[in-house]
Structure formats: C-alpha cells, structure tokens
Design brief:
Elements lengths: L1 H16 L9 H12 L3 E2 L3 E4 L5 E9 L11 E10 L1 H5 L5 E5 L4 E6 L8 H4 L27 E13 L2 E17 L2 E12 L10 E10 L2 E14 H8 L9 E11 L2 E11 L9 E2 L2 E11 L4 E6 L7 E8 L6 E12 H10 L8 E14 L3 E15 L5 E12 L1 E11 L4 E9 L3 E12 H4 L13 E15 L5 E13 L8 E12 L1 E11 L2 E9 L7 E7 L2 E2 H7 L1 H4 L6 H5 L10 H5 L1 E13 L2 E13 L2 E11 L2 E10 L6 E13 L2 E12 L3 H5 L2 E14 L2 E15 L2 E13 L2 E9 L5 E7 L2 E7 L9
Parallel strand pairs: 5-7, 6-7, 30-32, 31-32
Antiparallel strand pairs: 1-3, 2-3, 3-4, 4-5, 4-6, 7-8, 8-9, 9-10, 10-11, 11-12, 12-13, 13-15, 14-15, 15-16, 16-17, 17-18, 18-19, 19-20, 20-21, 21-22, 22-23, 23-24, 24-25, 25-26, 26-27, 27-28, 28-29, 29-30, 32-33, 33-34, 34-35, 35-36, 36-37, 37-38, 38-39, 39-40, 40-41, 41-42, 42-43
C-alpha cells in the first residue's frame, strides 16, 4: 500500500512539475509534428508538458503558415495551442499529435486563384503540398509522409475570408470548430456569427454547419446540414449586399447539402416571421415557409435554387447566385399566379415606391418578374379584379391593369377604372423606386372626390372642391428632392369650392381648368355664390407678387347680399351691438389667410342695388394686399350718373374703413344736373356705414330749379357732408350761383328742420333761399 501511495505522489508531483519543465530542446520536433499534421510550415514559441488532462503539450505563440499556393499570410495564429500526444506513437519513438485545441485562434480561409480553398489542401490528400522546408519527403516524391489529420477544436475564435490576396468584409465571429477524422472520413462541426467589417450594427444570429467529408475515388463526398438562427431579414440582406432591401422581418434557414464540393445537392426551407402583409407565402404553424431545392458549387461559388412548388402556391421562385463570397451577384425569378395584390403593394412600398400609406388594395396579380440588385426589377404583370380605396373615399375598381417593370421603373396602364356609381376613368403612369412618380388620369366624367382615391395630394383646385364632376385629364409628377408638379386640362361642372372670407361656398356651374406646374388657369367660369351669379376667369401665378389674379363679371346683385357674403372679411369685432357701437372688447385677430392674401384683378358689376338705387361698375381694378384692398380706375354709374374714382378699404381695425376719392357726374337734382368731385369716408357695416359717413369736395350744377320760383342757371362751390342724428347734414361754402343776369356768392347748410338754406349776396343785396334736399335717388 505504501508503494501505491508513493507512486500516486510521484505521478502528482510529476503532473505539477511537468508544465514547469522547459522543452526548448524539443521545439524542432514539435514543429515537425505540427507540420506533418497540418501540412503547413509552423512556428512555435515556448512549449510545456501537460499530464493532468492527458499526455500533451501546451505551446505558446503559434503561427501556422499558409500553403504557398494560397498566399503568404498565415493560415492561423493563436496565443496558446494545446496538443494531445499519441502514446502509441511515443512508444515507437515518434512524436505524433492526436488532437489540437486552437483556443480563440484567428483563421484565414482563402479562396485561391486556381479554384480550391486552402482548407481543401487539408481535406483532399491529392491536393496536399509539401509546404514545410523541414518536411521529410518520401524518396523521389518531394511530399511528406501521409499522416491522418488530428482532431481539431476551436472555441470563440475568428474566421476571416480571403479571395486571393484580398480580404473580404465578411467574417465569422465567436466561431467554434470541431474537426475529427476516422479511417479517412472527417467529421465537421462549425458555428459562428456572420458579420461585416463595414457595419457596426449586426442583426443576425449564428450560422451552424454539421456533417462529414468522406474520401471517394471521385473526390471528397460531403454530407452537411446548415442552419441560420432567426435573424433580421434586412441584416441578412446587408450581409451580402451593403445596399440591402429595407424590408423588415425575421428569416431563418435550414439546408441539407450532399455530394461533391463542385456539385452539392441542396434541399431545405426558409422561414419568415413578422414581415408586414407577407401573406403571399403559405402559412404553416404561425410562420410562412418556402421550401426549395437546387445545387451548390463550392469551388465555382455558384448557387442555383428553386422553390418546391405546391398546387395551391401563388408564388414560384428561382434563385441564382455566383461569386458568392468574392463579389456576390445574384438574381431571383418569381412567377406569380393570382397572388394577393396587397402583398405586392407592400413589398413595393418597402422597396421605396411612393405609394400612399392610407391606400388599400384588393385583388390578385399574375405574371413573371426578375430582380437583380444592379438592374432592379424586370418583367410584366397583370393586376386582376382590383379594388382601390383611400381612407373613407369612394371605392374604385379595375378589371385588368397591365404592369411593366424595367429596372427601377415600373409602368402601369392604361387601365379602365370604375367607381361605385358606374363612372369611369382611364389611369396610366409609372414610378421609379425611391425617385419619381408619374400618374395620368383621363375621364369623360368622374366625381371630383373620386380623383383623390388615387392618393395624389394637392390636386389643382380639386383639393378644395367638395362635390361635382370633372372631365379631361390630369398628370401628377413627383421627383425625389423636388416639389410635386401638376399638369392637365379638364372641365368642372356642378362643383362647390370653399373660399376663405366668403360666407357661402362657390357653386361652379361650369369652368375649364388648365394646370402647368405650379400655375393654374380657370377660364370660362359660370358660378354663383349665395344669390349672386358671376362669370369670369382666375389664374394662380405662385411666382407673382400677387399670385391670385382674376376677372369677374357680376350681372346683378343686392348690396345686402354682398355684405352678408363678405361679412367674414368685414366684421371681426367681438360682442353684441353695444360692444360694437361703444368700441368695447378686443377685436378678433386678423386671420392668417387674410394677412397672406395677395390678389389682383378686374371687376365689373352690371347692377348693384341699394334699395331703389342702382350702381353700375363697368370696370374697376382691384389690388388686395393683406388687410388693404384698393379698387382703382372705377368706371361706373349711380343710376344714370357716371361715377369715376378709386375706393380704399382698410381691414386692419375692428371695423372696416372706406375711403372713396372721385367724382359723380350729371346727377339729377331739381330738374337740373350736379357734378361732385371729392372724398367720401365711412366705417362699419350695414346701418353703421351710413352713420359714419363723412365727405368733402367741390360741386357744379346747371339748370337747378331750387324753388318753384327760383332757377339757378349755374351753381358751384365746396361742400362738407356729415351724418348726424337727424340724417345727413350739408355744409356749403364758396358758393357762386348764377340766376338770370345776377351772380351771387355765399354759403349754405342744412337747418334743424332738414331744409337747405342758402345765404347769398350780390352787389350788396342779401338773399336767402330755402329748399328741400334730395334722397340718394335724387328725388325731392
């Protein structure tokens, strides 16, 4: 028993002391053993013997050089390598390695210019090359003795990918590797997280490969199973193409590979989760799955897959890829058979098409499409039994819509579009992913609200129309980084348009609209607002100092109706009658639309009635700048008396203020005629307008029958007119009156009883005349 304990103690002591014993003298033998095992030149640092984990070596600063045919950068390097020894070989006096633990090594996988990968020089004896200067060649061969590869293990390492001398941006991090061989067959287990050196965000899981490689007369026979953990679909896309696809969702992969490396048979499935509206794929157990089969050429970096089509599947896919790891290129061919249209629209949105989010579609799509990253989409489709709706707007239907895809550009139509009430339109257009949208709509008669179902914003004039019909064509163009551009020619009928500052909407009986970019012309307008009918033209010139430009002709209107219609412009004071009369309370703020309004145009009114008085405006030019409105060049008539001048309207205060400067000619008064020239001011609305009246100026008259016994051959002078409690009060000055052969001078004014008194003198003779005033109609 004592001897047993001594033996155990000796073994433990040897196990403790062994790592401390330097093996510098054996370093050349250790390097040759590694070179025979890996068929590579190997450099090592210090080495120590280990016993507790089995007879082995702990080797520091290990560099495994590359096969010269694969480059000059080392195949792998690591801080520490643990090597297990083959006891049977040691008993025969040979140092042979049974296992290698690479720790967290960094490995470079190289695709040589001649075709094979550098690891194939390890797997295929026919490709093995004497890369070591120390290798003991067989006589006359130049090759080292054949020796089976030891089992290899790595944990938490990194695997870089190289193509010739160029290192790829792709690599595997947190890589685990297990390689073992038995009778020439090799078992492989690998897992790692695929990443790119040019992306900080990594949105994909681990990639796993498990299987065997068995030598055959034809070459290495592989039987592998590959899996990708659920990963971001956009992240996986970016793994092979920095541009990605900008499609949100999760993808997982399963694949079985068998055969020679140059012709591997591939079967498996893709599983998708959380992809918005991805109802195109058959659903199984809460996921959408796409089964596939095909072939993979590892040496040639070629992959060809095709979906395993089922009877009820609306989608068949063929996928081809080449230069998989050097410079990935690929194309996907898809055949759609009555696939859901909604899914196709969602995919187009994710790819950058300017399709409104509120637009929903139903129907099916059939055809063939090819996608290549450097080209885009190509092919032709047919949308069948389609329905389109935008929020709560009317539903539009199309029996067939042809679609042609060419690169990044997609063209559709022409197609007949029907509304719920059997109105029709023809639509055609195109869009370029993320860049441009071009749509043209033509109709012989369609409701105005139906135009907005296409999701096109700011339709010229149509956006303000609440009802009505239109016929003609409109075109909408939108380019990235630019403002939308409208053009078109169409007619409006029975439409209603709300205008800021007008109490009632405009009822357009008919009008012709022409749009060209930001410019808009509405001609041949026939419309009514309230009880007022008018005709004319309107132009919108956005670059002009006054964008609103118009020409209006009113046939007949009542002053009270006009005042009611424009009350939102004129009356902004708060409170009731006393508040307005006594100027109490704060006025309502000037609305933004009024502050920004800039307009210019001409107005003609055939008949504007003030009770029994009729005002005619043959023409007048209007300039509207915010709270200032000016009518200049007024040419009209009050009843039969010509009126000329200008009117200024100030809207900045609590109540509107008016100022007219001009003249009234040939006004009928007491059998004769008067001409007035001067200035008239007032403020307020309705009866307040008359109460605030002020006027001054000069007048001339002829053949005035002032009293039954007195006729003035001519009269001239100055006047002042004010509104008082008893009505209008006149004050006349600098009068010059001709009666017969006499010339009188003097002054006059309104008496408390309402009569007009004239105090005149001629050659020292004083005369007073009393006469009645006239109404606005000029009657006594």
């Amino acid at each position: 028993m004592k001897r047993l304990w001594l033996a155990i103690a000796a073994i433990v002591a040897l196990g403790v002391i062994a790592p401390l014993l330097p093996l510098e003298i054996f370093r050349p033998s250790i390097e040759r053993a590694l070179e025979r095992a890996l068929n590579r030149r190997v450099e090592v640092g210090n080495a120590h013997l280990t016993l507790f984990t089995g007879p082995g070596l702990s080797i520091e600063s290990v560099t495994i050089h590359e096969d010269p045919r694969a480059g000059i950068e080392p195949f792998a390097y690591m801080d520490t390598l643990d090597a297990g020894l083959d006891w049977m070989a040691l008993l025969h006096g040979r140092l042979r390695l049974a296992s290698l633990h690479l720790g967290d090594a960094t490995i470079n996988l190289v695709k040589t210019d001649n075709g094979p990968w550098n690891f194939q020089y390890l797997l295929n004896p026919d490709l093995r090359f004497a890369g070591s200067a120390r290798a003991e060649a067989n006589p006359g061969s130049g090759h080292p003795p054949s020796e089976s590869i030891p089992s290899i293990r790595m944990r938490g390492g990194r695997v870089n990918l190289k193509f010739g001398p160029t290192k790829s941006v792709l690599y595997f991090d947190d890589a685990d590797l297990d390689v073992s061989s038995d009778d020439g067959a090799m078992e492989l287990r690998f897992s790692g997280a695929p990443k790119r050196t040019d992306r900080s965000a990594q949105d994909f899981g681990h990639f796993f490969v498990r299987g065997t490689a068995r030598p055959t007369p034809q070459g290495q026979q592989l039987d592998l199973r590959a899996e990708l953990e659920p990963s971001s679909l956009d992240g996986v896309a970016h793994l092979f193409d920095q541009r990605g696809f900008n499609i949100q969702g999760v993808v997982a992969l399963e694949a079985q590979l068998s055969g020679l490396p140059s012709n591997l048979k591939v079967t498996g499935q893709l599983q998708f989760d959380d992809i918005h509206r991805w109802d195109l794929l058959p659903q199984r157990g809460g996921r959408w799955r796409l089964d596939y089969q095909g072939s993979l050429d590892l040496s040639g970096e070629k992959l060809a897959l095709a979906s395993t089509e089922t009877v009820d599947s609306p989608l068949a896919v063929q996928f081809q890829a080449w230069n998989l790891l050097t410079s990935p290129q690929w194309r996907a061919d898809m055949e759609l058979k009555e696939a859901p249209l909604g899914t196709f629209v969602e995919v187009a949105r994710h790819m950058g098409a300017a399709i409104p989010e509120k637009l929903t579609v139903h129907g099916s799509v059939s055809g063939a499409v090819c996608y290549q990253p450097e080209i885009g989409f190509s092919g032709s489709l047919r949308m069948q039994e389609s329905e389109f709706s935008l929020s709560d707007l009317p539903l539009l239907k199309a029996e067939t819509v042809p679609v042609v895809m060419d690169g990044q550009r997609v063209s559709f139509g022409p197609a007949e579009i029907d509304s719920d009430d059997n109105q029709t339109a023809q639509a055609e257009g195109s869009f370029t992913f993320g860049q441009a949208l071009d749509v043209k709509i033509t109709t012989r008669g369609l409701k105005t609200e139906d135009a907005r179902v296409f999701g096109l914003p700011d339709v010229p004039l149509m956006s303000q129309v609440s009802r009505g019909t239109w016929r003609g064509w409109m075109r909408y163009r939108l380019a990235a980084g630019e403002k939308p551009v409208w053009s078109g020619e169409y007619d409006l009928q029975n439409a209603r348009v709300a205008v800021d500052g007008i109490a009632d909407p405009l009822r357009i009986q008919s009008a012709s609209v022409s749009a060209d970019g930001q410019r808009l012309v509405v001609s041949r307008i026939k419309a009514k607002v309230g009880d007022v009918a008018f005709s004319g033209d309107y132009r919108w010139e956005p670059k002009a100092s006054r964008p609103h430009q118009f020409r209006l002709v009113v046939e007949e209107a009542n002053a009270d109706e006009i005042q009611r219609l424009v009350r939102p412009v004129l009356a902004r004071s708060s409170g009731g009658f006393f508040s307005r009369t006594l100027r109490l309370g704060a006025p309502e703020p000037v609305p933004e639309w009024l502050v920004k309004r800039r307009a210019a145009g001409t107005i003609a009114v055939r008949s504007l009635n003030f009770g029994d008085t009729r005002l005619t405006v043959n023409t007048a030019s209007l300039i509207w700048d915010g709270v200032s409105v000016k009518l200049s060049g007024i040419d009209g008539a009050l009843d039969d008396s010509p009126v000329h001048g200008s009117l200024l309207l100030d809207l900045s205060n609590r109540t509107p203020r008016y100022c007219f400067e001009g003249k009234l000619e040939d006004f009928a008064y007491k059998g004769g005629r008067l001409d007035f020239s001067g200035r008239v001011e007032s403020f307020g609305t309705g009866t307040d307008l008359l109460a605030g009246l002020r006027a001054n100026g000069t007048f001339r008259g002829r053949s005035i029958q002032f009293t039954p016994e007195t006729e003035f051959r001519s009269v001239a002078g100055g006047f002042e007119l004010t509104a008082g409690a008893g009505g209008l009060r006149w004050k006349l000055s600098e009068l010059e009156i001709a009666e017969g052969a006499d010339i009188y001078s003097g002054a006059g004014g309104t008496q408390p009883d309402g009569k007009l008194a004239l105090d005149l003198s001629s050659r020292g003779r004083q005369v007073r005349y009393l006469g009645s005033l006239v109404t606005l109609a000029g009657q006594p």
